[in-house]
Amino acid sequence: MPVTQFVLLSAFLFCTGVYGVLARRNGVLVLMSIELMLNAVNINLVAFSARLNDAAGQVFALFVIAIAAAEVGVGLAIVLLIYRNRVGVNLDEIDLMKG
Amino acid sequence: MFLATEAVTHAAEAGIAEKAWLIPLLPALSFFVILFFGKKLPKGGSESGILAVGLSFVLSVLVAFDWITNHTVVDQHWVWWQNGHAKITIGQHVDGLTVMMFVVVTFVSLMVHIYSTGYMHGDVRFTYFFAALSLFTASMLFMCLADNLLQLLVGWELVGLCSFMLIGHWFEEKNNSSAALKAFFTTRVGDVGLMLGIITLFFAAEETFHIDTINKLALEHEIGHGILVASAVLLFLGVMGKSAQFPLHIWLPDAMAGPTPVSALIHAATMVVAGVYLVARVYGVFWEGFSIEAGGLNWMALIAGITMIIAAALAFVQDDIKRVLAYSTVSQLGYMVAALSVGAWTAGVFHLFTHAFFKALLFLGSGSVIHAVHSNNMSEMGGLKKYMPTTFTTFIIGTLALAGIFPLAGFWSKDEILLGAMEGGYPYILILGLIGAFMTACYMGRCVFLTFFGEYRGHGHPHESPRSMTVPLILLAIPSVGIGLINATAFGIDNFTRWVPFHIPGAEHFHLEHHDFNPALAGLSLGVAITGLLVAAMVYYWQNVPAGLRGATDRGLLRGLKTLLIEKYYLDHLFVGGVVGFIKGPLARATYWTNQKIIDGIVNAVGSGTRIVGRFTYDVLDQKGVDGIVNGIGVSASETGGVLRLVQSGRVQQYALMLFAAVGLLGLALIFFT
To answer: Per the structure, how many domains does chain A have?
Structure first.
């Protein structure tokens, strides 16, 4: 089974994610972009798993999904708190960690 | 406390004797109990002391029975700390001598504890007194248990400390605190010698303090004779201080400033015999160092002989009943040391054993008298026989035992000493011993007649002491009468000789000689003692002195002798004026000059030299060199931080950009360079 289509799809989704993370100002959108990247990786893992007839890749994908869920939970909670404290989730304005 | 434990047992099977360490431990625990809770206890701490010492006594008796039946020497030690291959150990050595000391110390201490509840009743520092008694008992037993000289020294100094504390028990009076200081300082003079002796032996015996090893090496001639002589002389200095041998005996009579039970326990029965115990314990060193076997003249015998006579003479001119007994103790200690110095080891140790009972009895009896008449002076006593029957009877028993009247305890031990002197080739000790026996009987007769006979010369109405005081007197009177019979050589009984042997494993060719009973000598010493008592009776009871001799002590040569005795041979003057004065006067000035001119000069030169070096170090090395480096590191770190600071914008997306850029670059590198 050819994997080209899956790899291309995955690369497209990953690039979209990177663009989202780097360019969007809204914190929620950044989180969503991270999800895009993670799922791009998942597609790769599953595709190669099927190609190589090895279940390990699919197991990894399941792990990634579980961790992504946790990550989204934490991330959204942070975004929510930032929104409450500062009325807005514009990432440009959030530079408390400036050295 | 112990870094490492390493038990070494030579005993094949030892039962209760292995638990001998409990015997000193119990009074030590009692000391802390009394110290912390004494005042809250219903009897002010005395019950704790009596219980602990009582248990120790029971244990001692059990250990003694174990020893007599099995004769197994327990010799164990635990490594306390180690320096190179020199191990500093703490241990227990249980043999006949130890067992004998245990029985004597715990028994006399128990009697004194019981007696003190009556004698010290209502005292301001009752609890403190019992705490010190417990500590003393523990220290003394610890010293006797020692298997090495260092541990022995620790116990030795601890008993010295307790002696100091108890002599100065009523320290509000200047005399008492001075007496305590005098005792402490005088014994300290000897202790310097003891310490040097122990150090000498430590190095001579290839870095060990173990007593049996030292004895063995000395007896097997594995230590050079010169070193043995030096260490025996140095150790004997300690003995002279502790066991009040001439001329360091001066502290003992003054030590009577302490409460009478203390005098009985410490300054008659136990602590002052520590010196005798040391000689008996390290006998190999003394045997070889003073060439005892050769006979003739040795330093130890000479000192002991002088001590016997001069102390006995001093006892004649004392009015204070306790001082009479104190000089008597000095004289009897002279007998013990004399016995050891002539090779009569068993006789010396046996005399230590019997003397402890009857001298403690005499002291406690004198305490009972003092308690009744509220004075130490015999000039204020007299006729107490009918007021204090129990005290009188027991005091008479003690006197007869001390005078050496057959068949009481003192007879057997004193006879053995005289026999040892005769057979060992020390005729002058024999002669001095006989003279001393006469004088002993005579001054004790004087003491008894002045105290218990005639008319009462004091104030108030004397009365018999309470039961707590008379019961110990009776209990001490029993061994004073009968204990001598355990070594009644006249009847072929030599239990003591067999029970308390001097045996060093590894030194098999060495053995002590035991001489057969000599009826002529025993008769002579008994006759001398009875004559002494009769002379005393003639002068002080019948007051039937021949007219020509009446008032003889106030005329001519005898008057001078009496003054000499009253002034205690001017020894105190010699020490205070001569030794202390010399140290205070010329020596102190010379030392001061040396100090100011020479030592200070050196110190100052060293000081300014150091200052110059220090200034250079500060200016050049420290300020420019070290500080330059340190500051340089600080500044560069700060600068680097300033540059890196720009990167830390706090913007997450910038970080992410850097992350992806870095990943991208690494990816490119991966592609192009593989």
So the answer is: 1
